[in-house]
Structures are given as C-alpha cells and as structure tokens.
Amino acid sequence: MTTQDRPLSPHLQVYRWQWTMAYSILHRATGIALGVGTLLLVWWLIALATGPEAFDTVQAVVGSFIGRLFLFGWTFAMFYHLGNGIRHLFWDAGKGFELEIAAITGHAVPVSAAVLTLIAWAIGYAVA
C-alpha cells in the first residue's frame, strides 16, 4: 500500500463539522496569537528602555494601519481566550455540560469577545 492509497485520518472520515470544533481551533489559534503578540509587547518594552529613537521606530510600526490591525486582532484574541478560559473553568467545576448550556456559552464567547474588543477600542480612541 502506498501513501496515496492510505485512508485519511479517521477523524476526517468519522466526525461531522461542529461549532465546538471551530471554537476549539479558535481557542488554540488565539493562544498562538497571544504568544506572538507578546513578542510585540517585549519589543515595545525593550525599545522603551533603549531610548527615544528605538521607541519611535516601534511606535511607527504599531501606529501604522497594519500595526493597529494586528493590535485589534490581538485584543480580540485576548478577550476570546479569556472568555473561553472562564468557560473551561466552569467545566472544571462540573458546570455547563448540558448540551443547550454548552451551545449557548460556546456561541456567547466569540460574540462577547467581539463586543468587548469594540468597547475597548472605542474607549481607547475616546481617551486618546
């Protein structure tokens, strides 16, 4: 049997796509995004300690359209990961496993993350 004749991984043949799969993948992706975003924060802190020229460079990157888009995504990742983490804490306590509750909380996490992201950015622009 060649590698081309092998069947696909069983999970691709057996499982139907579900929202819980998407939310699980998004949780992992936001965790990675938070790690990458933290590198930007470290760069910013190092530049702050290095001097005005280095800090101005980082500020120019962060203040650009792409930089702000990245920060917006990072903000969403933070709120999504936080919300899903709280959801998992309830699961660790044995709460929220009923299908209806799990579905409601599952859908509520990305919606609340989006709303909290917009609120945070609105406050940020209002204060600045």
TrEMBL record:
Chain positions recorded as heme binding sites: H81
Chief place where the protein resides: membrane
Keyword annotations: Heme, Iron, Membrane, Metal-binding, Transmembrane, Transmembrane helix
Comment on bound cofactor: The heme is bound between the two transmembrane subunits.
Subcellular location: Membrane
Pfam family, one: Sdh_cyt
Domain of life: Bacteria
Gene3D superfamilies, sorted: Fumarate reductase/succinate dehydrogenase, transmembrane subunit (1.20.1300.10)
Membrane-topology descriptor: Multi-pass membrane protein
Transmembrane intervals: 25-46, 58-80, 101-127
GO molecular function: electron transfer activity; metal ion binding
Keyword Transmembrane helix: yes
Keyword Transmembrane carried by entry: yes
Entry's Gene Ontology BP terms: tricarboxylic acid cycle
Cofactor(s) the protein requires to work: heme
Secretion signal span: none
A single Gene Ontology CC term: membrane
Subunit structure: Part of an enzyme complex containing four subunits: a flavoprotein, an iron-sulfur protein, plus two membrane-anchoring proteins, SdhC and SdhD. The complex can form homotrimers.
Similarity comment: Belongs to the cytochrome b560 family.
PANTHER family linked to this entry: SUCCINATE DEHYDROGENASE CYTOCHROME B560 SUBUNIT, SUCCINATE DEHYDROGENASE CYTOCHROME B560 SUBUNIT, MITOCHONDRIAL
Functional description taken from the UniProt entry: Membrane-anchoring subunit of succinate dehydrogenase (SDH).
Identification of the protein by name: Succinate dehydrogenase cytochrome b556 subunit
